Amino acid sequence: MLNHQMKFTISISRVLIVAASAAIVLFCSFSTTPAVRQKPGLRTIIIDAGHGGKDPGARGLITSEAEVALDIALKLGKVIEKEFPELKVVYTRTSSALPGGLQDPNLANRYRAEMANQAKGDLFLSIHCNSNGKPAGGYYAKRVIGYKNKTTYTGKGKKKKKKVVKVPIYESYWVKNNVKGTETYIWAADRSSLKGEIISETEETSGENVDDSLNVLDVTSPEAKIRGQLYEKLYFAKSALVASMVEDEFKTAGRVSYGVKQRNYKGIWVLQATGMPSILVETGFITNKEEEEYLNSDEGQDEIVSNIMNALKRYKSEVESPRATTLK
Length: 328
Fold this sequence. Notes:
Layout: E1 7-9, H1 12-29, E2 44-49, H2 65-83, E3 88-91, H3 105-118, E4 123-130, E5 138-154, E6 161-176, E7 182-185, H4 193-202, H5 222-252, E8 257-263, H6 269-272, E9 278-285, H7 289-296, H8 298-319
Parallel strand pairs: 2-3, 2-4, 4-9, 7-8
Antiparallel strand pairs: 1-8, 5-6, 7-9
Helix pairs in contact: 1-5, 2-8, 4-5, 5-8, 7-8
C-alpha cells in the first residue's frame, strides 16, 4: 500500500535526454577498455507480486492487495511466456506466502531484490494495488451544522463566574471512497545513490546485459563506480520509458491515470535495490468498492494484463531497435 500524497510526475523527455547523454559519455569514457558486446535488450523479466503472508498490504471490502497482486502477476507471467517464449520469467512469489517462505516483510523485500539481481533481470516489474488511506468503501465523517449556547463556570468560591459560550453542533454523514485510478512508480532520484551502488556490485556478473565471457571492470575501481552511475542514469530513463508506456495503455483503456511518479519523501526499497530498470505498477484503488470489484474480476485482471503486455511489447521493440543507443 502506498500513500497517494507528496508525489510528482516525471518528465519523460527530460530523462530520455539524460539517458542519451549518459550513453555518449559512457562510450567515450571507456573507449579504451575492451568492448562490452550487447545481448538482446530484454531477456529476463522479474514479476513481483507485492506483499504476501503476514503482510496483506491494503485491504478492500472483499479481498487484500496481496491476493489481487498475486492473481495479476501470475496471469501476466503466463501471457509473457506465451507471447515471448524466448524470454525468461522469474516470479518472486507464486503462492500466498511471502517470498522465500519468510515471515518478516522487510527480509522478504531484500529477498525479492536479491532474487532479481541473481537472476540478472533486465526489468523488474512489481504489481500492487493502491489505497488512499481511508476505510474501504466509505466512512462516516462529521461536519458542523450550527452552534448552541453552553453555560460554563470558571474559578472557585467567591471567584466563581458564569460564562456562556457557543459550541458547534455536529452531524455525521457518509462519505463514499471514490478515489480510483492507476499510477506507476520508478525509484526516487534523490535516493538513487543506493541504485548506483547495487549496479556497481552486480555489474561483474550482470551489468547492462554484458557478455559474461568478456573481462569487465574491477567493481571496486573508480572507473567501475563512474560506470555504475552512468548505467544508473540509463536505467532511470528506461524505467521512466516503460512506466510511461504502461500508463499510456491504461489511459487508452479508459482508466484514470495519475501518471509516472516518484515518492520524494521516501523511496520504494525494492526499486532502489534492484540493479536493473524497475517499476512498480499500482493497478487500481482497492479501497474503492467498484474498482476493487474490477480488480478481482477476470475481465478486469485480463484487461490490466493486456495493458501491461501492450506496454512491454512497445518497450521491447524500442530497446531492441537498431535505433536504440548501444553501450560499448
